[in-house]
Design goal:
The chain is 67% helix and 0% strand. The chain has 162 residues and is mainly alpha-helical. α5 packs across α7 and α6 runs antiparallel to α7.
Length: 162
């Protein structure tokens, strides 16, 4: 359910077209400028109908998986089935490691480290696609020196001593 009615959004867009100021329009209708900008953009792209759900037009379509052929299994070649199986195994393994409690709230670097650990068992292209990490970002983060390496080494040394 939308917080603002279609009529309210339309009146705000019309007011903006009269005064040509997002700031004044947002203040007049007591809405954020972000909401107003979305409504104006939606109205420009699709008219009143686009105001019903302004983000729907701008939402990305899900990208097509290059490793899964879009045809029934009985029509796929053995090579296509094997590639799909290898991809699905990698994809299945990644979330288990990637979403472990120790990894919650971690950034891209941690995701890249997870991919790096799984790289021995699964092809990199499948892991990167599943984790939605560009190859260049992966190599950037893996190539960077760990800023906490000295502290980790010290902690490990103390742990081994006791």
């Amino acid at each position: 359910m939308s917080k603002y009615t279609l009529d309210f959004k339309y009146r705000a867009v019309l007011h903006y077209h009269q005064v040509h100021s997002q700031q004044r329009t947002a203040e007049h209708f007591n809405v954020s400028r972000t909401h107003l900008r979305r409504w104006i953009a939606a109205y420009r792209q699709g008219g009143i109908a686009a105001l019903q759900h302004p983000q729907a037009a701008s939402m990305k379509t899900k990208r097509k998986n290059p490793f899964i052929v879009d045809k029934p299994d009985h029509e796929k070649t053995q090579a296509e089935l094997i590639e799909e199986l290898r991809y699905m195994r990698a994809e299945n393994r990644l979330p288990k490691a990637h979403e472990s409690p120790q990894r919650k709230g971690k950034g891209r670097r941690q995701s890249c480290e997870t991919v790096q650990t799984l790289r021995a068992k699964h092809p990199l292209k499948y892991l990167l696609y599943s984790a939605d990490i560009p190859k260049s970002s992966f190599h950037y983060h893996i190539g960077k020196a760990d800023p906490d390496a000295a502290a980790k080494t010290a902690v490990s040394e103390v742990y081994r001593q006791h």
